Amino acid sequence: MTTVQLTDRAPQMTGAEMVAELVPPPQFENATFDTYRPDAAHPSQQEAKELLAAFSGPSAPVQKAGLFRRAKKIPAAKPGVYLDGGFGVGKTHLLAAVYHAMPARRKYFGSFIEYTALVGALGYQNTVELFRGSQLLCIDEFELDDPGDTMVMTRLLGELVGSGTKLAATSNTPPNALGEGRFAAQDFLREIQAMSDSFQTVRIDGTDYRQRAVDGTAPVLDAAGYEKAVGDAAAAGVASDDDFTALVAHLAKVHPSRYIRLINGLAVIGLRDVVQLDDQSAALRFVAFVDRAYDAQIPIRATGHALNDVFSDEMLAGGYRKKYLRAVSRLIALTTS
């Protein structure tokens, strides 16, 4: 039996190791345009699929929408595409499909956090030189919350576009920003105007696919059920077993770009005595942790407070509502898997 505590882990990553991680997560390592299933009730999904297939080049196959209907070839006039939409509509799947379809010798796929962490590890100019000459940069969960990080990415992407790199990104903008998730967020408009000019914004509507097959509650286990779930996972592999409050505090000591290493090798994540979070910084770190657990498709088992109710009503009414709701959606999926 192998049980570990994540609070005992302090993963480190070199710049080279960070670069090696810039590929689609395992969940999307085989994502294609044909395996993306657009919802007929939301035509923008099919339109986005066709536009991105065209953006990725002639070698990208796209399933036609009907027997006699040709898939539209909509040329992307700009060097970048920006997927703007709600959570659970398949933006990351489409982004990974772009990565796999584009016939590029040098291409990278990472979250916004991973790219800014790389700048922190290598320095700005070294990061520019690393990516210079690459054909494609995919950026998942583009964040417009932090002015400093936004400025760094604005400069970086501007230099790369100037040298011929294509860009594809998904958005994670606070929904109460001007334009609801588009580049016209008032607080950052001047800083990101030049970068936004490089992107064609593609809006994707729809219903969170994770909520189509589950109800809206994350299961809460009693002590015996928790011990069995974690024990069974530990018997077959490695399971973590942590006090929720202690883990959340530990996340403050680990850069979010290293959370994927924090959970490396786990078959199950065990969280004891979950409580509702009332600190925004702690809540945002937990969101980043959930994102990495979801990418790795590691089930979560928990006691205490239901994880779908881990963010307070005040948080859900604030500027990070979209992030928290996405995390709730993913927590429900991970606790019911």
TrEMBL record:
Q: Name one Pfam family in it.
A: AFG1_ATPase
Q: Which GO terms describe its cellular component?
A: cytoplasm
**Gene Ontology biological process terms, A to Z:** cell division
Write the record's keywords in alphabetical order, separated by commas: ATP-binding, Cell cycle, Cell division, Nucleotide-binding
State the Gene Ontology terms under molecular function.
Answer: ATP binding; ATP hydrolysis activity
| Record-linked NCBIfam families | ZapE
Entry protein name: Cell division protein ZapE
Q: Which gene encodes it?
A: zapE
